[in-house]
Amino acid sequence: MLSAVNQLSGAEICVAYHFRNLTSQDVEGTVAFPMPDIRVTESDAFYPDGPPDNPMRFSVTVDGRALPVQLEKKAKVGSKDITETLRSLGLPLEPYSD
What is the secondary structure of 58-70 as a DSSP string? Predict the structure, then answer.
């Protein structure tokens, strides 16, 4: 990685990574970007307004082209991970999902 530039605002987070490939072949890899926790509170004023499958409207573009993203979701109560319990019961991981 040559550089990483982060721009933060109230409306979006913009991250620009610059990589240099020192080989003669294409290189593929996974880039993980941690998102802030979504907390259920008495008020949903700060809950993200995106669709249930992508509540923070996370997207990736490379050279102006949109790329598919794979979101990893987890559900916790305190420090206990309850993701698999909810999935086994057929319940959504998103707090305000149908």
Answer: --EEETTEEE---
User: Under DSSP, is residue 43 helix (H, G, I), strand (E, B) or coil?
Assistant: coil
| 71 within 8 A of 58, measured Cβ to Cβ | yes
Write out 9-37 in H/E/C secondary structure: CCCCEEEEEECCCCCCCCCCCCCCCCCCC
Name 38's Cβ contacts closer than 8 Å, sequence gap at least 6: 47, 48, 55, 56, 94, 95
Which tens digits make up the pLDDT trace of 83-97?
Answer: 999 999 999 887 766
C-alpha dist (Å) from residue 48 to 51, 74, 85, 97: 9, 16, 24, 12
Tens-place pLDDT, residues 26-44: 988 888 777 777 776 666 6
Residue type, 22: L
